[in-house]
Amino acid sequence: MGAANSVFECAFMKTAHAHIKKKATRWRRILNVAKNGGKARRFRSFFRLSVRYFAALVGFALLGYLVVRAGPAVVWKELQEVGWGVALIIALGGFSQLIKTCAWRQAFMCDIGGLSWSRSFVGQLISDGFGQLGVAGKVIGEGMRISLLRRMVPLSNALSAGAIDGALHSFTAVLVIVSGVAATLLVAQLPSTWRAYAVLIVAVLILAVIVAATALRNRWHLIGHAIRAIGRLPRLQTWISGKQPIIDSAEDTLLNFCNEAPGAFCATLIFNLLWHVLAILEVYIILRFMGARIAVGGAFIVEALTKVINLAGALNPGNFGTYEGGNMLIAKIFGVTGTAGLTLALCRRVRTVFWAAVGGVCMMAIKRTDSAQVKDTDDGFEGGVVLHSTGTEPVTK
User: Fold this and answer.
1) Confidence of residue 280 (pLDDT cuts 50, 70, 90)
2) Cα 336 to Cα 294: distance, rounded to the nearest angstrom
3) How much is the pTM?
4) Distance CA 49, CA 44 (A)
5) Helix 72-82, helix 38-70: angle, nearest 10
6) What gap in Å lies between CA 158 and CA 261, rounded to an integer?
7) How far is Cα 312 from Cα 316, in angstroms, rounded to an integer?
8) How far is Cα 304 from Cα 324, in angstroms, rounded to an integer?
9) DSSP character for 318?
């Protein structure tokens, strides 16, 4: 008992010391902000936020302009031609999210027996929904997905699984882009300027794949070194230094994944490839419902060029306007009307919004359930006693 009390006292003292130290650090931070010009920093933050909102408003304005220019009546007629195909696309989108969930679960290097499929699926929906909002949205979405894991999976393993799944998803996406752009150069009559840009994109992506494969084979810690270089900046040094061990652990798991779990590596790769196949099928179904005579190979090229549009519009929150405009240009390359390309983009946008909304509703339900469970647990530990439903008297701890 004496030893146990000593341990509790030591733990309490360490906790109190850490709390005092954290509080002091917070006050020092506040004083430094005031001394170095807190108003200037707040102005810069406000300026960056204003730029993001302005970019989103410009995107919405561009989307409205494209709809007006194409003719709202014509767009509505195209949507009516798709008809019940929208429900088919939504169902296909749900199956795609399930496939992506399978890929993510295969990327874990720890036991996930306590992580339910329903929670995993909701986490994927949330991550994908926020990921539509650009780079910042992807970061927020991944954080929301990890928050659903809570104590079921260690943080380092959750980060590693996200990194592994994201890396393999990006790798397979690059393969689709390179193949699609190369096919476009062979079958489409493009202006010389566009052809030069296409060759440049293919060259850069192939170089990126070579560097990634070499780093994986030679176990180069490219991410860790890059984060350390960024951490040398005065404003980011404190924030990054606390997260560097977790980042290094996640990258170690990423580099070891192929050798330690080749079966899971192949499964994750195959599931991500299947996700892209379903995206190609989605393009094919929508265009066929609109009466466009396009082969599966043409749908493959359209999807590959759409990924290029997504890459170019990553800095535009939600990719509003640029995504729809890009689809109109891609459609015209294959002799399809721009209105059909706009309708294709809108149908895919409806599918994205639907499943993002489903994920949001399910996440609120899960959070409410988790809060109720925590409250029930806290109610069982009142006044330093453990309450048993089968007993008549409380038993002291």
Assistant:
1) very high
2) 9
3) 0.74
4) 9
5) 80
6) 16
7) 9
8) 15
9) G
Residue 220's CB is within 10 A of a number of other CB atoms, namely 15
CA 142, 146, 152: angle at the middle one, nearest 5? 160
Residue with structure tokens 């008549």? 392
Query: 336: helix, coil or strand?
Result: coil
What was the pLDDT predicted at 51?
Answer: 58
- C-alpha 274/C-alpha 276 separation (Å) is 5
Report d(CA 185, CA 178) in Å as an integer: 11
Please name the residue that has the structure tokens 């909304």: 357
Reduced to 3 states (helix: H, G, I; strand: E, B; else coil), residue 360 is: helix
Outline where the chain has alpha helix (H).
Answer: 2-36, 38-70, 72-82, 85-106, 117-131, 135-149, 155-187, 192-218, 222-231, 237-241, 244-260, 262-289, 296-312, 322-333, 338-379
Q: How many angstroms from the chain centroid is the CA of residue 355?
A: 14
**pLDDT tens string 75-134:** 788 788 888 888 999 999 999 999 999 999 998 887 888 888 888 898 899 888 888 777
What is the token pair recorded at 117? Answer: 């499929």
Is the CA virtual torsion 109, 112, 115, 117 positive or negative? positive
Residue with tokens 């010389």: 192
Choice between 6 and 372, residue whose per-residue pLDDT is larger: 372
Q: How far apart are CA 74 and CA 71, in angstroms?
A: 5
Radius of gyration of the chain (CA): 26
**What's the rounded Cα separation, in Å, for the pair 63 and 24?**
49
286-316 pLDDT tens trace: 988 888 778 888 889 889 988 888 877 666 7
Contacts of 346 (CB under 8 A, 6+ apart): 75, 79, 324
Q: How far apart are the first and last CA of the chain?
A: 13
CB 78 within 8 A of CB 338: no
Handedness of CA 226, 229, 233, 235 (dihedral sign): positive
* DSSP letter (8 states) at residue 134: -
**Using CA atoms, how far apart are residues 275 and 93, in angstroms rounded to an integer?**
10
Q: Rounded to the nearest 5 degrees, what angle is found at the Cα of 242, between the Cα atoms of 237 and 248?
A: 100
pLDDT of residue 274: 94
**CA–CA separation, 249 and 292 (whole Å):** 50
For residues 334 and 294, is the Cβ–Cβ distance under 8 A?
A: yes
